[in-house]
Specification:
Order of helices and strands: EHEEEEHE
Strand content: 25-35%
Keywords: Membrane, Transmembrane, Transmembrane helix
Oligomer: single chain
Number of strands: 6
Helix content: 25-40%
Number of domains: 1
Structural class: alpha+beta
């Protein structure tokens, strides 16, 4: 399950999303993994927090931002339903707050 956000500048959109966490994206929190440099976001709702984490990756052409659900190593893998719920929550947030920053969302399983 993935979301590709088609945009003119994926790096800028990625930074905008992380800067909005805890502000416009008030129901999300950021997680940073210092030894890898990877950044994630997770919903703050207790039943989803740190159960599903979303990873962001900018493609080489800088025209797509890929969002992929993950979970922490050593924890149980969430169900497909939990992944889908969190991806849906993220989709609603990006449509609400960043619709001017992209031209299309593409989802794949």
């Amino acid at each position: 399950m993935k979301i590709d956000i088609v945009t003119t500048n994926a790096k800028v959109l990625n930074d905008k999303i992380f800067k909005a966490v805890g502000k416009e994206l008030e129901t999300w929190e950021a997680r940073n993994v210092a030894h890898t440099g990877k950044r994630f976001i997770t919903p703050i709702a207790q039943q989803y927090a740190d159960v599903v984490i979303l990873h962001f990756e900018v493609n080489d052409n800088n025209d797509r931002l890929r969002v992929t659900p993950h979970y922490w190593e050593g924890k149980d893998e969430p169900t497909d339903a939990l992944f889908a719920i969190v991806m849906g929550m993220f989709t609603a947030a990006i449509l609400t707050h960043f619709s001017d920053d992209f031209s299309k969302l593409e989802t794949t399983t």
